[in-house]
Amino acid sequence: MKNKPQAKRMRSVAAILLWLLFSASATIAQIQVTGTVTSKTDNTPMPGVNVVVKGTTVGTTTNVDGAFSLNVSDANATLVFSFIGFKTLEVPLEGRKTILVSLEEETKELEEIVVIGYGSRAKKDVTTAISSISSDDIREINAVTPELAMQGRMAGVQVVSGGATPTARPTIRIRGMNTWQVSSPLYVIDGVPITEFGSGAEGSDPRNQDLRSPINIMTFINPEDIESISVLKDASAAAIYGVRASNGVILITTKRGKTAQARVEFSMKSGYQNIPKKYDVLSVPDYVALYREAYANVPEATDQMPKVFDPNDPSYLGNRPTTDWQTPFLNKNAPTQDYNLQISGAKESFNYFLGAGYNYTESPYINNNIRRYSVTSNLDGRLSKYFTTGLNLRTSYSKSYDNQGWGGGRGNLDALAGTTPWQPIYDPDGPGGYAPAMSLAWTPDFVANKLWGPATNMNPYGLMWNSDQDYLLLRNMGTGYLQFEPLPGLRFKGTISADWYANLRRSFTGIKEAYFNITPSDPLALAADGVDDTKGSYGERQVRNFNLVKEFSVLYTKSFGNHNFDFIFNAMDQSYRVDYTDASTEYLTNAGKDYRGVGGPQEYVNGFTGYD
């Protein structure tokens, strides 16, 4: 009985020792380590970095400021820091409770991915003829239209600029011309085939080509919003798009949100452009000497030599000063400005990309420019484990002033270089201070009386002073989709897309056009004294296009070792409607730009045509 108190005391001591032991263990388990992770490249905080105690599953991630806090049980534990695109780093604590870590970017080259029809593949797995460029390639150029980014970068793809006009359509040939008359490729933007009246199957009709206008419809896309451009060049690559792809397919994929942290980017580009070299042309003495030599080599034609080349004739032109027709036509140091704001990001079940851009570009030719405003939004979200959805919206408005190449090709530098060197540009006594190219004196057969010999050209400067032409383009595109993925690799996707644009061309010609043009004047426009003082014209052409595309697709992908199996079923319904109005009037008595036709008779009527 005397041993009972002693045994009781022993049990109490043991309990106290066990309590102290567990308390010490608990205290050790609660060592708190804090720190910050930054990028070694620019020293910016890195959110979303994985921080794990080596050899355990204990870990955390850094917050938006790159900071972390982690409880460890060993003061000498090693922390492992990892993030996609950066080298994994192991850092021993060595008793420290606060650490600063910098991660280095991984320089290993990532596998190149190319976009194909209704999907994407690793480039090494693609056997068809596909070329692609990335956003980095596009960013290297400062072009209004995205097609010019492909110039010289893709084998088998020929891109020829439409001229110095910033809105001109470039000519694109993929492995040459594959069909008669219609040789333009099919454009697909984020899965939506772009249809434009006057292109594709209708392109062989000259009337439709005329309505299409010379303005490049692709100027509505901001190149800064593009992630990649892929070109499908052979039949196997483009087969899924059918006969429309007979001239190849250009796939344009726009940017989407990627990084976990919201990313805000602002870019500004500014530059200028010039025509680097003018054509070498003959002076007046050289031109006359060459002309006389040509007639001297054909004796039987000597008597037919125009009198303007005979030094003994009063109308001889060989003593006139040489006119430089090219320099006044050039817009020296034509400015170009481009501003872009982009906001993008991604979370666990949602990613977004928002972009806004402004571009102003002048041509190295006078009286030619474009001003464009664009807004883009791409949104993608996961509704549940099986359903994802997305919405893409794009709006663009542009106004371009195009006073070249219209009214007889006066925007062609070649034509200017071929103008006779003695023909003057300016005349203080001429209309508006410009020298006329022909006399409007009435003749019975209405033959134009060229003032500067048989090689007289039009005076484009007088024409430009006398007229103007601009284009207004508003385009809206929208795409929505819903995707169901019941099994890994099996996807059912429904998509609906709408593309609407309105294009307005306004053309005005003042009362003195016939003075500067070398074509015979309309005899009905001549007054009784043979002087054309009444002719003026104004016209508008409006084209409205609505394109609706509905698609349903089934995609199944399965990999067996080094083998990949893809099954694609796609059904598409596409309809579009085009309405156009072409109206004009002539014989305006008031040519003021702000009072076009006020008080003048409307001799020419309006017209309207609709196409469905």
Question: What does this 3D model show about the protein?
Answer:
By secondary structure, this protein is mainly β. Among the domains are: 25-103, Carboxypeptidase-like, regulatory domain (Immunoglobulin-like); 113-254, Ferric Hydroxamate Uptake Protein, Chain A, domain 1 (Beta Complex), CATH 2.170.130.10. It is built from 8 helices and 28 strands. The strands form 7 sheets. Strands 17-18-19-20-21-24-25-26-27-28 form a 10-stranded antiparallel beta sheet. It has a 5-stranded mixed beta sheet with strand order 10-15-16-13-14. Strands 3-2-5-6 form a 4-stranded antiparallel beta sheet, with no helix packed on it. A hairpin with a 2-residue loop joins strand 24 (467-487) and strand 25. The longest helix is centred in the N-terminal third of the chain and has 27 residues, at 3-29. 28% of the residues are buried.
